Structures are given as structure tokens and as C-alpha cells.
Amino acid sequence: MQKYSFIFKKYLFWWVIGLFIFIPLYPKFPFINVPGTYVAIRLEDILIAVTFVWWVLSIGNEFKDLFKKTITQTFLLFWGVTLLSLFSGIFLTQTVVPHLGLLHYLRRVEVMVLFFIAASAITSFKQIKIWLLTMLVVTILAVLYGFGQQYLSFPVISTTNREFSKGLILTLTPDARVNSTFAGHYDFAAYLAVTLTILSSVLLFYKRIVIRLLIALTSLFSLIILSLTAARISFAACVIGITSVFIISGHKKLILLLAGLVLFAFIVSPDLRHRTVATITVNILGGGGPKYILTPEQLEAERATSSAEQKFSAEQFSSQSATLSSVPRDISPGEPVNSTELGVYRSFGIRLNEEWPRAIRAFLKNPFLGTGYSSLTIATDNDYLRALGETGILGFLALFLILLFILKHFWLFIKKKSKDKGLDFYLLVGIFGSALTILINATFIDILESSKIAQLFWLTLGLGYGITNLREGTKP
Questions:
Q1: Helix/strand/coil (H, E, C) string of 20-56?
Q2: How many alpha carbons fall within 13 Å on the CB side of residue 216?
Q3: What is the pTM of this model?
Q4: 162: which of 38, 259, 315, 433 fits an S-S bond (Cβ 3.0–4.6 Å)?
Q5: Do residues 337 and 361 touch, judged by C-beta distance below 8 A?
Q6: Domain boundaries, the chain
Q7: Torsion-angle region of residue 34: left (phi > 0), alpha (psi -120 to 50) or beta?
Q8: Is 411 helix (H, G, I), strand (E, B) or coil?
Q9: DSSP state of 471
Q10: Where are the alpha helices (DSSP H) in 383-450?
Q11: Closest CA relative to residue 318, chosen from 346, 293, 286, 340
Q12: Alpha carbon distance 349, 332 (integer Å)
């Protein structure tokens, strides 16, 4: 068996490269629908399953050593606790439909196993350079496709609702935001934030003008398309991630250049600018433009004309004072009349008043184990509250332990290599910063529930871990 495992090990890296290509570029067409949910099994799940089998065959007799490692034990602890949480949700709190809860659990095991697969696949710095080139080409293709959606009516595949998730081929409407080959604009924005953070770090290593120019242009157009998604949390996470890269790598002066690029992004994307301003004025400061307020006379007039079948949409608002003929039917007194402010107000309101309290109630129902996977429905828009609600404090701490161990391992490697800044140093700085972008995104988006992002996240962390395990003295 050991003889054949060497052969499987030799080609494992190319399976991983295949995943880094297929996952971001292949649209989310359903392959097998699951009863009771519109989350489907997709072709990337099949590819991951085949890659997993290939990895198992490549390990051979090394499985015993793998289970002795602390990093493996942290993952096993998490999977054990969350499996216990699942059984608790099915039999104790009875808050989980068994087959849905099991599907959610297996999906998390599936994406997290990718960490070990990627870590095992990295055996040389030549492979690292191949991965970097792959990431660059994939990003260019995703960005070009995004521009094609925005300006040339390229097809859109989305999973933002039950009908779209059936694999409908759509095009962007005038007010829709670009999502490229991802399931939605938030997913695409998160991917761009991760990629930009890594590229900004790698750019500091390479000295050849041609390579620098290629990376710089890719980064610039990625920043532009990121701004067109108008995803505020991903944009902020990207800025923080790149800032951390410049600080850790000792290039603090470049933060001024980053500030200029941020201003450029706000100029390029009025939607991002307006939504950011609305977030500050409406959600943070509690102000903003005019609100919809009814006087007693207007209230009486509205009741008298309630049978009229006039229909309005939030996009038809102006920022002027509201009148009965310019206000949509579903607006409530006290809400902003400006369409952008109304969208921002409601986006935060549904989190604050519905989704987050629902997760907190689930946590309080069973503080130790939560109410089980799938019990919080599709959206919580905060991965930390989702973890607490579904898996309790034990599941949350187990996940925190994994991330803490990995990021601490990366940080120690970065400090060790800080005097000898090779490609491995800059890559780890970039991957460390990209992990921060995901963790920041997780405060307002269920980013780790997005299959594409979760799969790429654990693959990238595994690749970084594999880099730290390359033999000492080897130069990129």
C-alpha cells in the first residue's frame, strides 16, 4: 500500500489545483436537489469527494501520525462536539429535521477536510508558484466575467432565493449588483477581498517589472469590480486586510497609497459611496435624510384612498420629503424615504430585530450545545452568533480553538521569517491577512455558510499550513 500511496501523493497537488480552478469559476448549478431545502449537492461536491478519496490513498500508513498531531485533534474535537450538538437538536430540543441537520453537518466536515488535503499536497516551492499563477489567472477570469455581467449582459447564476437556486440563467437588472461566477455579490466580494489581500502581499516580493505590472493591474481591476458589488463589509474587510499586510511586512508607507485607492473606489462606484454614507448617517448616527411621517390629516387621507391599486417601489423614491403619491405601500412611519437609506436601514434592522435575536434565543435554549445545525434557517448574517445558536458555547469554542491554533502557527512562522523575507514570508503574511478579511466578513454575513467561500477558505489555510511545513533551508 505504501508503494502505491507515493503515486497518489505525487499527483495530489494537481487535484488541489483543480479545486482552486473549478470552485470559483464553475457557476452554482444544482446537481442533486435535497428535499426540504433549496440547498443542493453540486458538481464541486463530487470533485471534493473524489479528491478526498485520492488524498486518503496518498496518506497510506501515515494516518496514525496524522491523528497524533495537535491540529488534527482540534478538528476532531470540533467535529465531535458539533455531532453531539446535532444529536441534541434532533432528540433533546427537537429543533432539527434529521436529514437536513445531517446534511449541514456533513457539509461542514466536507469543507474543513480540505485543510488537510491542501496541507498534504504542498511539497515544494515550485508548487507554490504554480498555485500563485493559478490564483492570478482564475481571478482575472472571474473579474472579466464580472465586467461582462455588468456591461455585456453575461449570464448570471444565483442562489439568493428558491427559484434562482434551481439553476435559472438570468442577467443583471439595472439595480442588481455583479456576482460573476459566484452565487451572489456578497460571495464574490468576499472572494475578491481575500484575493486582493494575498496579491498585495505577493506584489511586495516580486521585483521584475512585468510580474509586478501584471499583479498590480489584476489588483486594480479587482478593486474596481469589488467596488461595483457595493458590499460594504467586504470592502472594509479588504482595506483592513491589506493594511495588516503592509504593517506586518514593514511597508507602512504604502497605507497612504491604499487610502488613495479607497477614494478612487468611492469615485468609481457611487452605489458603494452612497451606501457607505447611509450606513454612517442612518445606522450609526441615527440620522440621515427625511423620514416618512404621517400627520393626522394624511393618515385620514391614506385610509380614504386605501383601495387604490397604485404600486411603488423603493427605487422610485427621491430624497425629497414624502408625499402620499411618492411613498411605496410597504414603507412604515419613521423609515427613510430615500431608496438607498431605506435599503441600508432595513438591512441592518432585520439583523438587529430578527436574525440576531433568533440566534441568541437558540443559544439560551441550550447554552452548551445550541439547537443543532439547520435550526436557524438559512440566514443569521453573523457567523459567530450562528455558531453560538446552532452549536452552543462548546461548538463555538471548539471552532475558535481551530482558528486560534492555525493563525498562531502562521504568526510564529511570520515572526521567524521576518529577517529573511522570501516568498514564503510574503505568502503567509497575505494568507494571514486574508483570514482576517473572512473573520471580519463573518460579523455581518454568514460567509462560512457560502460553500464556495468556505471551501476556498479552508483550502487556502491548508496551503498556508503546508508552506510552513516545508523543510528548513529551502528557498523559493
A1: HHHHHHCCCCCCEECCCCCCEECHHHHHHHHHHHHHH
A2: 13
A3: 0.90
A4: 38
A5: no
A6: 2-268+365-468
A7: beta
A8: helix
A9: P
A10: 383-416, 423-441
A11: 340
A12: 13
Q: Which residues pair with 170 in a beta bridge?
A: 156
Three cell numbers at 458? 479552508
Predicted confidence (pLDDT) per residue in 86-113, tens digit: 999 999 999 999 988 999 999 999 999 9
Distance (Å) of CA 153 to CA 165, 173, 251: 19, 9, 40
Amino acid at 476: P
Q: Residue 291 phi/psi, 5° resolution?
A: -110, 160
C-alpha cell at 402: 481551530
**Dist CA 334 CA 435 (whole Å):** 39
Q: Name the amino acid, one letter, at 327.
A: V
Q: How far apart are the first and last CA of the chain?
A: 32
CA angle, 270 then 274 then 279, to 5°: 150
Q: Which residue type does 438 have?
A: I
- φ/ψ (deg, to 5) at 41: -80, 135
Contact, 184 vs 208, CB < 8 A? no
Per-residue confidence band for 329, with pLDDT thresholds at 50, 70 and 90: low
- Give yes or no for a contact between 272 and 234, defined as CB atoms under 8 angstroms apart: no
Cβ atoms within 10 Å, residue 68: 9
**Residues 279-304 pLDDT 10s:** 999 988 888 888 877 666 555 665 55
